[in-house]
């Protein structure tokens, strides 16, 4: 059986535990008596950390930003399948069918967004090599559905056709995305790496089914997926855990004679790691998704200034929830939030708007470079 990337990295991460020994080693001055062992204890974790970074380091094609990805795409797909099954198990009965008027709105928006998204990543006519893992993943996805059909399907206008087949084992990248509109009062929308887009009717009601506002939030969620933000967050958490383990080890070695002080420092360090550091990184990824979402919706022909109205509206909803006491304490303090505050979000969006407006104006002046590709291609096929 093929070893997964995570199975390979996790043992390496455990080897960094030798860093916890070093503070005690030097506190008791064992390094003077065992210099070779001291060098080994220091070399193993440093080499391991460097190896993990070398394996997982990746540069985003869209932002040119370096990040740590400790999960392969196939493992990310496997995680997405599990998440998909969880959603179906609890909310499959609330999925709206194609006759609902809201489906047409979501499909129209997603058709434009997906087309704009894939203009920069055109589809090759070639298929990926056939492999057993891919087949099993596809079969699991079909079995997970249990007969549940999506509300609609959208695909890239760059390839508006696909070969018909009833063979579930046929591997062909068609770039199709499945849309699920769920009739529940939740104010939420999310996208899975396996190309499933979920939108809740509660969100549509809040936005009064406004096309531009809905496009802004779907573009934001799509940005998370195309940049693999969930995987990146896991990579940062792993690296952060190692760094704070070292700090914990040093503080414990220095305060071992003072249990109360030691426990207090450990609690504070855990708080800094779990609440401050990881959530600060999450806010960074949210800001990046906002900026990329602006570009995607602008390229699709939607005015990116709608994003300001969207997040302003959602900020008002959050403030109302605070007044009713429905918000956790962690969301009331800026540095413990997983998402930026409304004010910070507005500032970041305004900063990114000039670039997005340029893309939007270009898409209006030259529609052939954006969402009109589908109509033009279909016309050529018809003739």
Automatic annotation (TrEMBL):
Q: Which InterPro entries match?
A: Mito/Outer_Membr_Metalloprot (IPR051156), Peptidase_M48 (IPR001915)
The record's region (Disordered) falls at 364-383
Tell me which GO cellular component terms the UniProt record holds: mitochondrial inner membrane
GO BP: any one term: mitochondrial protein processing
Q: Name one Pfam family in it.
A: Peptidase_M48
| Sample GO molecular function, one term | metalloendopeptidase activity
Asked if NAD is a keyword of the record, the answer is no
What protein name does the entry list? Putative metalloendopeptidase M48, Ste24p
> What organism is the protein native to?
Melampsora larici-populina (strain 98AG31 / pathotype 3-4-7)
């Amino acid at each position: 059986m093929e070893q997964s990337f995570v199975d390979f990295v996790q043992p390496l991460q455990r080897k960094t535990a030798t860093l916890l020994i070093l503070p005690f080693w030097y506190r008791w001055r064992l390094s003077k008596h065992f210099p070779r062992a001291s060098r080994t204890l220091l070399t193993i974790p440093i080499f391991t950390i460097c190896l993990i970074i070398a394996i997982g380091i990746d540069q985003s094609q869209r932002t040119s930003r370096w990040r740590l990805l400790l999960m392969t795409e196939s493992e990310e797909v496997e995680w997405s399948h599990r998440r998909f099954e969880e959603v179906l198990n609890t909310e499959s009965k609330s999925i709206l069918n194609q006759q609902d008027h809201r489906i047409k709105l979501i499909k129209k928006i997603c058709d434009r967004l997906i087309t704009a998204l894939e203009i920069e990543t055109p589809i090759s006519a070639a298929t990926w090599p056939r492999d057993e893992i891919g087949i099993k993943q596809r079969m699991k996805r079909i079995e997970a559905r249990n007969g549940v059909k999506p509300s609609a399907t959208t695909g890239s206008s760059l390839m508006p056709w696909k070969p018909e087949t009833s063979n579930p084992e046929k591997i062909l990248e068609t770039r199709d995305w499945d849309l699920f509109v769920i009739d529940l009062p939740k104010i939420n929308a999310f996208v899975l790496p396996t190309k499933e887009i979920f939108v809740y009717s509660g969100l549509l009601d809040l936005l009064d089914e406004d096309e531009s506002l809905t496009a802004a939030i779907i573009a934001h969620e799509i940005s998370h997926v195309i940049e693999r933000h969930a995987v990146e967050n896991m990579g940062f958490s792993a690296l952060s855990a190692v760094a704070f383990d070292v700090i914990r080890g040093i503080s414990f070695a220095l305060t071992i004679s003072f249990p109360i002080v030691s426990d207090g420092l450990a609690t504070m360090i855990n708080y800094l790691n779990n609440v401050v550091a990881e959530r600060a990184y999450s806010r960074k990824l949210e800001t990046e998704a906002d900026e990329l979402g602006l570009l995607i919706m602008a390229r699709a022909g939607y005015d990116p200034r709608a994003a300001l109205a969207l997040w302003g509206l959602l900020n008002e909803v959050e403030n109302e929830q605070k007044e009713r006491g429905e918000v956790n304490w962690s969301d009331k303090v800026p540095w413990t939030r997983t998402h930026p505050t409304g004010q910070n979000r507005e500032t970041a969006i305004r900063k990114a708007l000039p670039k997005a407006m340029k893309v939007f104006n270009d898409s209006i002046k030259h529609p052939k470079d954006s969402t009109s590709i589908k109509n033009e291609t279909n016309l050529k096929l018809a003739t």
